[in-house]
Amino acid sequence: MLEIRALARRLGPNFSLGPMDLSIAPREIVCLVGHSGCGKSTLLRLIAGIDRPNSGTLRLDGRVLAGPGVFVEPEQRNIGFVFQDYALFPHLTIEQNVMFGLRRWPRAKAKERTEMLLSLTALSAMADRYPHMLSGGEQQRAALARALAPEPAVLLMDEPFSNLDRDLRERVRSDTLALLRRTNTTAVIVTHDPEEALSTGDRLVLMKGGRIVQIGTGRELYHRPSDPYSAEFFSTFTRVPGVYREGSVQTVLGAFPCSLDVPDGTRAVAYIRPQAVYPSPVGTAMTGRVRSRSFRGEIEQLELDVEGLGTPLIMRTTQHVDVVEGKLRFRIEEEAVFTFAMPGPGDQ
To answer: What Gene Ontology terms describe what this protein does at the molecular function level (predicted)?
Structure first.
């Protein structure tokens, strides 16, 4: 549906986007994710036609929208856009906002389409209200209905849930995804939230400094990151230096099996997720002294000082360590006994 080839945009002397390649299939939901300033919103503006690339080609369903000697204006692209602040027209009712992009449709058909989308977004009872009379979640749904009204080939959403509090954000995100699936909409969603990206997109496009770092499903990026940036973006780690020798990285915490195409003796770093560190019965070899502990409801996080390790080892556990057999009452400055859960097949 959307094909980007060697697309590039220079933005001053210190930043440029691309060149990059990206293909998005019909009905696919893709998340552009990365830290602020990595180029996510710039790429979205290039797709929408709000900005022009310096080079490369952009095609929508085979039609060239931007390329050498070609630039199709935004209103001619059949691309919908939901802005971060929703950008609803304050002087129009919700029904009038949704109908705004249907002015060239026959009135009866436009009315039918509007009523259908208001029903799908649970806004029928609010059709005569103005945007300021709606909650943040309701405004977001109204903006989504307005963007979907003209039946765009692709829908772009720039941080659409960032203005909502956590509980509301999760519910609105779930409802939005259900609506996109139901309407068979191809969508590109920008977010800086790793958890939101993992739970939203069919595929994730991780960006850094105007470049694409890795593309894949959420599970692929989480379990098989391509480099340290990809790994650390989606998870917290304790970095443990070591040496690669005989099929494992050997560290002060023990040997971690892995397959690397490097000579024995090469310096390496083991990345250990907090949830891979488990409280263990007395008798296991690994011990550390509790530096800090933080109760977080369903989990508890501890920082352990381990001899020979220059940084605290982070452990997260669902076991409430105060009440497990009396042996695992890890208090500050007390000794803690732990073990590791090794990655499964195909994980890193």
So the answer is: ATP binding
Domain edges within the chain: 2-232, 236-340
Name residues whose C-beta falls within 8 Å of residue 259's C-beta, 6 or more positions apart in sequence: 247
The domain defined by 2-232 folds into: Rossmann fold (3.40.50)
b or e along 164-193 (b: 16 or more beta carbons within 10 Å of the residue's beta carbon)? beeeebeebbebbbebbeeeebbbbbbbbe
Higher pLDDT among residues 110 and 328, named by residue: 110
Task: Work out whether strand 154-158 and strand 79-82 pair parallel, antiparallel, or are unpaired.
Answer: parallel
Cα–Cα distance, 83 to 312 (Å, whole number):
41
How far, in Å, CA of 152 to CA of 291, rounded? Answer: 55
Three-state DSSP state, 243? strand
User: At CA 117, angle to CA 121 and CA 198, rounded to 5?
Assistant: 50
pLDDT in tens, 5-40: 999 999 888 889 989 999 999 999 999 999 988 999
Strand spans (E) along the chain: 2-10, 16-24, 29-33, 55-60, 63-67, 70-71, 79-82, 154-158, 186-191, 203-208, 211-216, 238-245, 248-251, 254-257, 266-272, 277-279, 287-295, 300-305, 313-317, 335-340
And the tokens for 329?
């009452």
Kindly tell me the burial class for residue 144, based on how many C-beta atoms sit within 10 Å of its own C-beta (0-12, 13-18, 19 or more). Answer: buried
